[in-house]
Amino acid sequence: MRSVKATAFSSSANLGAGYDVLSMSHLAFSDTVYAELINEKERRVMMESNSNVPLDPARNSAGAPVEALLKEFQLNYTIKLNVIKGVPHGLGLGSSGASAVAAVAAVNELLNLHLTLEDIVKFAVIGEQAVSGSPHPDNVAASAFGGIVAVTSHDPIRVVRIPINLNFRLMLVIPRVNTGEGKTKKARELVPKQIEVSKMVENTRFLSSFILGLVKGDRALVREGLNDAVVERSREPMYPHYPKLKEIALRYDAIGACVSGAGPTVLILYDDSTKLGEIKQEGGKVCAQHGFQCDFITTEIGEGVRVEGLN
Questions:
Q1: Residue 217 among known ligand-binding residues
Q2: By the 8 A CB rule, do 66 and 81 touch?
Q3: What is the CATH topology of the domain spanning 1-161?
Q4: PROSITE patterns in the record, alphabetically (predicted)?
Q5: Per-residue pLDDT tens for 73-103?
Q6: Is 88 part of any known ligand binding site?
Q7: Is 54 part of any known ligand binding site?
Q8: Is 92 part of any known ligand binding site?
Q9: Could you tell me which residues come within 8 angstroms of residue 182 by beta carbon, excluding any fewer than 6 positions away?
Q10: Extents of the domains making up the chain
Q11: Per residue in 164-198, pLDDT tens?
Q12: Calpha distance 218→162 (Å, rounded)
């Protein structure tokens, strides 16, 4: 039987004030999904993995969207998915989103469904809902499209890749902690349901500054834009190390810093002006003061999902 391999990269969502809107793909980690057509007699998804993810498709971010895909197209096929996890789970790096995108992209190629990238995002969010209770599209959009993206509409899904005219690289400060199950769900529950108009205006300024800074190639605007007066503030109890890490990053002339998705990873944008060694040295001390070690991973903006037929 025919099989297809798809690889999707890790991502950092929100990017300051862009909650559920902005996300960035990066090359730090990736998930790979192998999809194989077993038979054309029964609608079923079979799961296997190198990790301890649930093998019940309905509870798996790769399996759930493929089940929805088969149902949508009324296909009575049995598909076997082998999910090779490379994106660390529970650290704000788009782990479930990468699996979902890779699975949908692989099955799309396997069955010649001719889905667009936005179609892939539409189905991949079902995987996010299966594991976090919320069909948030930001991580999956970045893993599907690559680069930095804005989700401009949720229903129907519309994704725009933002032009980048600023040279920078990325550093992920990743705490070695076990965040436990349901971290993303808990983080979303902390976000206030109502905010003051003044906070909305402040966040709109941040969001506008970030996008304009990328498009114009303006370092100062990007730095100003990597702030958030609402979501990061509400989640500070989940990552008490973050404010000091950001302070250190800016002191040593990083372009900017923000929480990666729901944390606890911190994303730092840097360039040749940044004193990266000092950030690592002092940042490591901050992590130690909070009772854990941190890994400092330098990387670059990632591409979209890769797909290749195997036979």
A1: no
A2: yes
A3: Ribosomal Protein S5; domain 2 (3.30.230)
A4: GHMP_KINASES_ATP
A5: 999 999 999 999 999 988 999 999 999 999 9
A6: yes
A7: no
A8: yes
A9: 132
A10: 1-161, 167-297
A11: 999 999 999 999 987 666 667 777 777 778 888 99
A12: 14
Q: Is 93 annotated as a binding residue?
A: yes
Q: Which helix (H) or strand (E) holds 34?
A: strand 18-39
Tokens 């699996």 found at: 99
Name the DSSP letter for residue 14: E
Taking alpha carbons only, the member of 106, 112, 110 closest to residue 124 is 106
Tell whether residue 91 is among the known ligand binding residues: yes
* 263 known ligand binder: no
- Single-letter code of the amino acid located at 41: K
| SS3 at position 212 | helix
Q: Which of 279, 179, 172, 187 is CA-nearest to residue 236? A: 187
Tokens of 127: 């995987």
Domain at 167-297, CATH class: alpha beta
Asked if 157 and 65 touch (Cβ cutoff 8 Å), the reply is no
Given a contact cutoff of 8 angstroms between Cβ atoms, the answer to whether 68 and 107 are in contact is no
**Which stretches within the chain are classed as H helix?**
63-72, 95-111, 117-132, 138-145, 183-189, 197-216, 219-225, 231-234, 242-251, 276-289
Q: How far is CA 78 from CA 3, 83, 214, 216, in A?
A: 12, 16, 44, 49
The reply to whether 167-297 shares the fold of 1-161 is no
